[in-house]
Design goal:
The structure is a single chain. By secondary structure, the chain is mainly α. It folds into 2 domains: 68 residues, Winged helix-like DNA-binding domain superfamily/Winged helix DNA-binding domain (Arc Repressor Mutant, subunit A, Orthogonal Bundle); 120 residues. It is built from 11 helices and 4 strands; from the N terminus they run H-H-H-E-E-H-H-H-E-E-H-H-H-H-H. The strands form 2 sheets. Strands 1-2 form a two-stranded antiparallel ribbon. A two-stranded antiparallel ribbon has the order 3-4. 30% of the residues are buried. This is MarR family transcriptional regulator.
C-alpha cells in the first residue's frame, strides 16, 4: 500500500485541484498529515501549490508510476480482484453512466432534451435505481475493499450523496461543485484503475 506521502500525491490524481482538507475528506487522513505531505511534495516538486490548492506535477505522476507496481502488487496479482473489476466495468459502472445520462437528459417526442427536473416522479425513479446499483456495487467490489478500506470510504461517500439526493438536493446526483454521486464515483473508478493497473474503458 501507499505511505501517507504517496497517498496524498495519489489523491491528486483523483481530484485534479484540491486543498488539504478536500484531500483528507477523500482519504480519511488527518488534515495535519496531509498538510505535512503536501509541504514535502511541494518541496520535491511532485505537487504544485495554487492559491491554497494543490495539483500534481509530471514529477508526481512519475513518482506514482514508479511506486504503484510494488504498492499494489497484491491487487494486480489477485484473480478475485480481477474478476471483481470485470464485473464492475461491464455491470454497475455502465449502469451508473446510463443513469447519469438519464438524470441529465430525458426523452421527449423521440428526442433527448435537457432534464429540467420538473417531473419529480421521473427524478425519483432514477435516484431509486441509483440506490439499487450502489447496493450491488458494494457486493461486486468486496474483494477489492477487503484489501483496501478506501474503497468502502468511497462507497460511504456515494451513499451520503445519494441520501442528500433522496432528500431533494438534486445537485448531489451529478453536480460537479459538490461531492455528488457522479463526482465521487469518478474518483473511486480512477482509484480502482490505478490500483489494478487498468486503463479507463472508452
Amino acid at each position: 500500500m501507499l505511505d501517507p506521502y504517496q497517498l496524498t500525491v495519489h489523491t491528486l490524481t483523483l481530484r485534479q485541484l484540491a486543498s488539504a482538507e478536500q484531500l483528507a475528506e477523500i482519504t480519511g487522513q488527518p488534515v495535519a498529515e496531509v498538510e505535512a505531505a503536501l509541504e514535502r511534495a511541494a518541496g520535491e516538486k511532485t505537487v504544485m501549490a495554487a492559491r491554497g490548492n494543490f495539483m500534481i506535477t509530471p514529477a508526481g505522476r512519475a513518482l506514482l508510476d514508479g511506486v504503484y507496481p510494488e504498492a499494489f502488487a497484491e491487487f494486480r496479482s489477485s484473480p478475485a480482484v480481477s474478476d471483481a473489476m470485470d464485473s464492475f466495468e461491464t455491470g454497475v459502472n455502465k449502469q451508473v453512466l446510463t443513469l447519469t445520462t438519464d438524470w441529465q437528459t430525458k426523452e421527449v417526442g423521440g428526442d433527448r432534451v435537457p432534464n429540467d427536473h420538473g417531473d419529480p416522479d421521473y427524478d425519483a425513479a432514477i435516484v431509486d435505481k441509483l440506490g439499487r446499483v450502489v447496493d450491488r456495487t458494494a457486493k461486486v467490489l468486496r474483494p477489492v475493499a477487503d484489501l483496501d478500506p478506501l474503497v468502502d470510504r468511497f462507497l460511504d461517500r456515494i451513499g451520503a450523496a445519494l441520501t442528500r439526493a433522496e432528500g431533494g438536493e438534486t445537485d448531489y446526483v451529478s453536480g460537479v461543485r459538490v461531492d455528488s454521486v457522479h463526482t465521487v464515483w469518478f474518483q473511486m473508478h480512477e482509484h480502482l484503475l490505478r490500483l489494478t493497473g487498468r486503463e479507463r474503458p472508452e
